[in-house]
Amino acid sequence: MPKKKQFEALTRVNHSDHGSYSFGPNRFEYDSVSRLRRPSPRDLETAFRRYPLAFRGVMVRANELIARGYEIVAESDDIREATVKKLKALDFNSKLHQITINTQVYGNGYLEIVIGENEEGNEDVIDLRVVNPVLIDFQRNQSNQIIFKNGQPNNYIQFLPNVARTEKNVIPIKKELLVHLIFHRLGDDLFGMSIFEPALKSIERSMNVESAIAQAIWRHGFPQLSIAVGDPEHEPNKQQIDDVGALVEDLNVRNEYIHPYWQKWSIMEAKTPKSFNTYPKTFIAQIVATLGVPEPILLGTGEGTNKATADVQSRHFGAEIKGMQWGIKNEVEKKLFTTLAELNNWSEVPTMEWNEILSADKTAVVGQAATLFEKRIVTRTEAREMIGFPPLSDFGDLKPDPVKPIPGQPNPGEEEKRGAGIIKDPSKIPEKEFIPAPATSTPSDKSRAAMVRLNGEFVYSLGEFFDTLRNTLLNRIISLHELDKHNKKKVSKLDLKKMEIVLTDSKKELRDILYLYSKRASMHGFDSIKESQKLSDLSSLSPEDLVFLDDYASVLAEKELAEVGSKSRWILVDSIAKNESFDKLRSRLTVLFNSFGSLTNESKKNRAKFIGLNELNRAYNNGILSAFGLSGAKDVSFKLSEKHCKDCASLKGASIGLIDAKGKLPLHPGCLCQYSLI
């Protein structure tokens, strides 16, 4: 047995190494286990006051916590109205907001209930005081041990600020009159844990990295000077050195410096900092995860986040806020409302019921869901989830109404009829609904070469996706283990449900692929004419452009999976009806998926190559239009590619609004027409 065992859950309020006061559990010792030090209040306060993400994270959580409000519930209307009136008189809402901030920063939030005589001369609650958590501790005996009663700390004490912490300089507070909020607690700790504590090291390191980056940039822009005063024939004294130092103190902002020949100076030039914007990302990820606030909200940017991910993050965030609200409800009812009921001789203790975090008028939600579905922004399943309905039991949620074809883009299967050539029927070209985007000159060969490489990567990624989807689909229908035993396993109706699960799970992956490569293609188009439009090197696609790409990728992914799903379901149903073996089904599905894309299929024509040829070209032209928009253009002119697009000749020179032009090029497969500035 070890000779030494010690577990000290709480220690007295003491002076920490940083010169500030620490409180709560701060030591865990067992044999050779090193001491577990808790961060001091000064460290926690510094993180909140000096680190933007820490400040914003706490404020977002505090604001969301009380933003929806609450209702006071009581059987008696008189008691309910009296409670509402009293809380308003005590400015309860603003003080509740403040102690939620304190609770997150320090781990503990305190609200003292002050009792005195009201205007009628009766004893009542006359004030609520927010108490600095650093000044609160439990009542202790002469041995500095907490005084317990019935297994709970007896009372609290408040230290006077800016005076020595002695027994004479404390104010006792009854525990019934001190609302003590704790949102995060470990084990049976009597004090709470700050939300910063798990990420405090990451916050400190992130601040240090940011400081180092700023210093590096400053040193590069304003390099230090090395000045030698004097030579062997002109030995300087201290006064001369000091005079030169004062003279060159502000040399960074001077145009010239004239000095005698016995002074020599040189520049201590710092290296150019590179990739400095990637350094803080690791620490920021840790901080975002600890705070629990969705990254788009915490950072104030939606880049790289789609609607589905944002919805999931918001639901989890809402669940965390609800947990905090339960803690507030229990403590306020037990302390404040009970005290009010006793002092005013109420027949019941009112309760506090929080409003729904994401509450909204049901009729408005239904209308919004219907509109979003009609515009193809959300799927049928997502629309049903918005109004609280479960997914359809059949496959209707995975087979929405046909997506309205994008002008100039063929419907599923239409490209097989057209081939890779040009549409023969000019009537298929929408009248004055063309729209792409080019520049005052044809994009450079370098830009075109980059697009060729990007198209190759895109087709490869789509082929890999469809190969994986096919294999996952087959493995979900029958495992490899079953296949070894039953090579002739028959396809069953159960396999149809398994297929729907696979198709549903694959939507996000396909959307992400389409969004990633569309964004890269748009950037190629944007960069290809950025210089000719005299745009800043830092200019880029706007947030609206990224939202457009996100929506477009979602619609296109839905459309492609609806097509492959429809054909796969037909093959599966037909296979069930014919009582075919699994080998036969696998062969039929392989042929189908090869027509969409595959790494093993060398065919010159498949859906992946068709999408790469047309959709990346569309995104490329949209990027050019975005650059035109930044340069101030309002209208563009149709620029015919006479060598490749004779069917578009009737549109030559036509003008169109830049906004209306977005998303329409190419007008047909293989179309190389562009737009130029008017």
List strands and helices in order, with pairings:
Blueprint (H helix, E strand, L loop, with lengths): L4 E2 L7 E2 L5 E2 L6 E2 L10 H10 L1 H16 L2 E4 L3 H13 L2 H15 L2 E9 L5 E9 L4 E3 L9 E2 L2 E2 L1 E5 L10 E5 L3 E4 L18 H22 L2 E5 L9 H10 L16 E5 L12 H11 L3 H5 L7 H37 L7 E4 L7 H13 L5 H7 L27 H5 L26 H33 L2 H6 L8 H12 L1 H24 L12 H35 L4 H15 L10 H24 L4 E5 L15 E3 H4 L12 E4 L1
Helix pairs in contact: 1-2, 2-4, 2-7, 2-9, 5-7, 10-11, 13-15, 13-16, 13-18, 13-19, 15-17, 16-17, 16-19, 17-18
Keywords:
678 residues, mainly alpha, three-stranded antiparallel β-sheet, 47% helix
Task: Give a written overview of the molecule.
The chain has 678 residues and is mainly alpha-helical. Among the domains are: 5-47 and 72-198, no CATH class; 362-389; 445-632, no CATH class. The protein contains 20 helices and 19 strands. The chain has helices spanning 41-50, 52-67, 77-89, 92-106, 200-221, 238-247, 281-291, 295-299, 307-343, 362-374, 380-386, 414-418, 445-477, 480-485, 494-505, 507-530, 543-577, 582-596, 607-630, 658-661, and strands at 5-6, 14-15, 21-22, 29-30, 70-73, 109-117, 123-131, 136-138, 148-149, 152-153, 155-159, 170-174, 178-181, 224-228, 264-268, 351-354, 635-639, 655-657, 674-677. The strands form eight sheets. It has a three-stranded antiparallel β-sheet with strand order 7-6-13. Strands 8-11-12 form a three-stranded antiparallel β-sheet, with no helix packed on it. Helix 2 (52-67) packs across helix 9 (307-343), helix 13 (445-477) runs antiparallel to helix 18 (582-596) and helix 17 (543-577) packs antiparallel against helix 18. The longest helix is centred in the middle third of the chain and has 37 residues, at 307-343. It is extended. Residues 1-35, 393-443 and 479-493 have low confidence and may be disordered.
